[in-house]
Each structure stands twice: as structure tokens, then as C-alpha cells.
Amino acid sequence: MIFDFLFKKTLKxxxxxxxxxxxxxxxWRNVEMLLNQKSPSQLKQALIxxxxxxxxxxxxxxxxxxxxxxxxxxxxxxxxxxxNEIWEAxxxxxxxxxxxxxxxxxxxxxxxxxxxxxxxxSLGINL
Length: 127
Description:
Blueprint: H1 2-10, H2 18-37, H3 40-61, H4 67-73, H5 80-98, H6 106-122
Helix pairs in contact: 2-3, 3-5, 3-6, 5-6
């Protein structure tokens, strides 16, 4: 309950816009479709979209020039465990996008997507 209080206090004047929420929900349908296909390229795309979805939500409620900065500024909006899981998922996404030949195991991609989903749900987005 303390978390709810802190969360509401933090978001007192900053709310995720309805159009952002709708876009995230639409994107999440695509994430689930890609996950069900289970091919490596679709799994990677699902992770990229999931990461982008959380970033889009954060853009509406915290300052920062990058996802990393926005995550740092949003730390108090997540439980300790969820925050750390989100960071790990974002690092996997970054490695996937920026490191040639990086091939994370299936379970790492699935776990990363699930962590990003928890982050979105912590911000009050129903997926």
C-alpha cells in the first residue's frame, strides 16, 4: 500500500496519455502474436516492441533523453525487483540491437518480455 501512495504521489500531475495507452495495448497484441510464432527473429522483434512500449509510457511521465535516463528517473515508480528486471530486459534489448551476432537464449528473451510487461502493468496499463 505504501507503494500505491508513492506511485500516486509521483504521478500527481503526470499521466500516461490515452493515445499512448491505446498504442501500447495495440503493440502488445503484436508482441503476443510474435511470441506465439516462436522463431528467433519474431522473438527478437517482440522484445524490441515491448521495450519501446515501456519507453513510450515513460516518455509521458518522466523526463529523460533516452530510455536509460527515463528509467533512472522512474525508479520510484516500480518495486525494487520489477525495476531491476526492467533494467536487465532493457540491457538484453540493447545487446540485441547494438551487438552484431548477439543471440540470447529463448528463455532470456521470454523472461525479458515478461519483465517489461510487469513494468507496464506497474504503471497501470492493462494488457
